[in-house]
Amino acid sequence: MRAIEGLLAFPKIFIVELIMASSSSPNCFSAIAGGWLKLLFWGVWLWTCGGRAASTVKPSEISKVEDAQNFHMYYGQTFKVVKNAMDGHSYLLIQNNSRMASRTKYCTSRIKSFVIPLSNYSVDTDLFPVSFFELLGLLSSMKGMTSESVASECVLKLYEGGEIDIINKSEPQQFSQFSAHFISQSDHPQACNFANFVPFSEETPLQRAEWIKFLGVFANVESRANQVYNAIKANYLCLNRVALNKTKSFKPIVAWMEFYDGVWSFTQEALKLKYVEDAGGENVDNSINKMTYNISNPDDLDQLHAILCTVDVVIDGTYTSEPVNYTQSTFLQNINVEDHSCFAFLANQSLWRFDKRIQNSILDWFDGAVSQPQLVLADLTEALFPTRNYTSTYFRNIARLLKSLSHRHLSKASLSSTSLVFNLRKQCKCPQKT
Ligand SMILES: *[C@@H]1O[C@H](CO)[C@@H](O)[C@H](O)[C@H]1NC(C)=O
Ligand SMILES: *[C@@H]1O[C@H](CO)[C@@H](O)[C@H](O)[C@H]1NC(C)=O
Ligand SMILES: *[C@@H]1O[C@H](CO)[C@@H](O)[C@H](O)[C@H]1NC(C)=O
Ligand SMILES: *[C@@H]1O[C@H](CO)[C@@H](O)[C@H](O)[C@H]1NC(C)=O
Ligand SMILES: *[C@@H]1O[C@H](CO)[C@@H](O)[C@H](O)[C@H]1NC(C)=O
Ligand SMILES: *[C@@H]1O[C@H](CO)[C@@H](O)[C@H](O)[C@H]1NC(C)=O
Ligand SMILES: *[C@@H]1O[C@H](CO)[C@@H](O)[C@H](O)[C@H]1NC(C)=O
Predict the structure, then answer these.
(1) Among 3, 370, 285, which residue's Cα sits nearest to residue 163?
(2) Ligand 3 centroid vs 114 CA: distance in angstroms?
(3) Whole-prediction pTM value?
(4) Whether the CB of 265 sits within 6 Å of ligand 4
(5) Which CATH code for domain 53-231?
(6) CATH level 3 topology of 247-403
(7) How far away, in angstroms, is 409 Cα from ligand 7 center?
(8) How many Cβ atoms are within 10 Å of 22's Cβ, its own excluded?
């Protein structure tokens, strides 16, 4: 019998009101820092990132979708319907204490039913941001996953402690032992208990983060999902206002680019372009019309060289299986131009990658950064308007060789070194066995 006993329940200050209260203040940095202390006397909120799913159902607590485009929710007396606008599927979620729960079961191509709150679930961990479950306090009901390639320390600990089993994807019948199996790639064949969770289908950082509400409804933890999203959104918007206020006569020009198969491309991903704008920068994208440059082609190389002479900040999103080994010299090799003298972003040490937080070479960028976009925005703001007094969470400067990468021991400094951004994951502890 493997039960998680003695889950740590940490009384935690809850910060929503605080951020809300400070959001009208001209300088939310200091307002939040001051409010943090004030809040110590306000309310205390139970915060266990790995805790058991809440079991009390208060029908008055509902989630409303404000920003996300690709899911909708409807509430009945004893059931909820979540509609996934990407694939047109609806999930009928039936409260376990209702008569309907034992009588009704749907599994058609359009509608599936689940009895909630889920007693357990499994996750297809290929590109699945499990941090959403962490923020909801639902990790202890996670009983299966498809691989150990996850960036979440808490999930890895649970796996190592035997709480989570690895399920082989080639034996899909194994997933039927769980109340639900969450997947993020909807093109796969789907059994009756599969539910599609697709935050990556959204275009903006906040839209993606709001998918926490989608998972919340399966466990009746709407109020927590709402609180987390409200806190993240308020913090994001606050950071955004501060960043835009930093812009002086002109905005720093940012090239977010990737190298693949001999070709450099400037990103066209809406999400990344939006992050740059929200951090007070301007995308190089707005001023050029050619997006890809083949470094074996001399004309392309000249043009790329010229463009790079005009940018202030470069974000190199090139994929590599060994992020730790990707350095400034790797970047320069990939760029393939000999004369770097005009590269202001090098002189100014403004060359970044988003692989600072990793776990066995798995990037938390695709996990924790999806559920907490305010951390990304804070990092980017520092990249664009350096204070040198802020420890980034996701972004790693490969031009400034001060520190080596922290792999196993993830950075603990970011909360203390900055007073404006909140990392909700650091407010909580992994579930522990006793
Ligand atoms: C904007 O910046 C100015 C000076 O740099 C400061 O006085 C003002 O409070 C800032 N406003 C906000 C909203 O941060
Ligand atoms: C419904 O779920 C809750 C929380 O998991 C559980 O405590 C309760 O016993 C369940 N009720 C029924 C009728 O299954
Ligand atoms: C998951 O919950 C269901 C329903 O309560 C139960 O029948 C099943 O044994 C549980 N599975 C695991 C792996 O805990
Ligand atoms: C890049 O250019 C070289 C030389 O012209 C060519 O052989 C190669 O196929 C091109 N690469 C791509 C991805 O188009
Ligand atoms: C990465 O760096 C480590 C240590 O410097 C080295 O042992 C390893 O071979 C490198 N990997 C690759 C693929 O270059
Ligand atoms: C470096 O950045 C500073 C502001 O951070 C700016 O004033 C300066 O012009 C930049 N230098 C170059 C060479 O771009
Ligand atoms: C650096 O940050 C700390 C904490 O936010 C702050 O107290 C300190 O004044 C800052 N230092 C500078 C030089 O801005």
Answers:
(1) 3
(2) 13
(3) 0.85
(4) no
(5) 3.40.50.1980
(6) Rossmann fold (3.40.50)
(7) 24
(8) 23
